[in-house]
Amino acid sequence: MRLIPRINSILSKRREEGYKIYGQVPNQTSLARALGARKQQVSLWARGAAIPRPEAIFHMAHLLNVRPEELYEFVPPTEEEQLALIDEFETKEREDTIRRKEKKINELREKGLSEDAIQVKIKMLGLTKYDDAE
């Protein structure tokens, strides 16, 4: 999955059309000034090294007279990439749940709860999802 920036090509097209951004030739510098951003930040956006916040995308689209979705081309993930994303999410979720469960058990032990009471509390909190996997 990728976002391919189209900012530079839109700027170039606008220059050819004689379009102006607040009276200035459309380039990264004039766009940055109009957005209240640094030129380096706009350069990162145009190279795809960073993604602007949503409000900056909408403001940029307004300044360049394009729809927000025209600033970036979305390339959907391949099936292999999607499966890798799902696996990564599941691994992180499992690790997080196990970490939270261990932390909660320690907290409850410090409070002096019995092991049976701890297990009931852990189950009530939904932290037993990965017990079979341990």
UniProtKB/TrEMBL annotation:
Gene3D superfamilies from the UniProt entry: lambda repressor-like DNA-binding domains (1.10.260.40)
InterPro entries referenced in this protein's UniProt entry, alphabetically: Cro/C1-type_HTH, Lambda_DNA-bd_dom_sf
Spans through the membrane: none
PROSITE patterns associated with the record: HTH_CROC1
Recorded coiled-coil stretches: none
Gene Ontology terms for molecular function: DNA binding
CDD domains: HTH_XRE
Annotated HTH cro/C1-type domain residues: 28-71
Name of protein: HTH cro/C1-type domain-containing protein
